[in-house]
Fold this protein.
Amino acid sequence: MVEPHGITIQQYNVLRILRGAGEAGLPTLEIAERMIERTPGITRLLDRLERKEQVVRWRPAADRRQVLCRLTPAGAALLAALDGPLQATQEALLASLEPAAQERLVTFFDLIRSTPEPSPAPSDPSARKGPEPGRTNP
């Protein structure tokens, strides 16, 4: 549904996240954390959106290590053009469900959103027994 407009679903997700952030924008890493589909390529996604003039990036004077991103008027216009058709599609999909099934679906999505992501397993290199596969000790 978004591809005919020249963007991917991941790029659409970035644009929606930035629309919610307003004029202040968001740091790149925070955008990545808010993504529905986690992708290691947030910089590449932003590169493409910036080339299309749908987002702008800058480094704030207070902290030059950080990169902030904001939606441009062109990006906002694209989202506005997509809002109606996407809303209609969602409503058509939900209309095929009985009200009780719709309630269960909403409850399920709320549960997913409220569940924290699991922490990565701690790794202690000293706890390894022997060399890693394919490696030998010096």
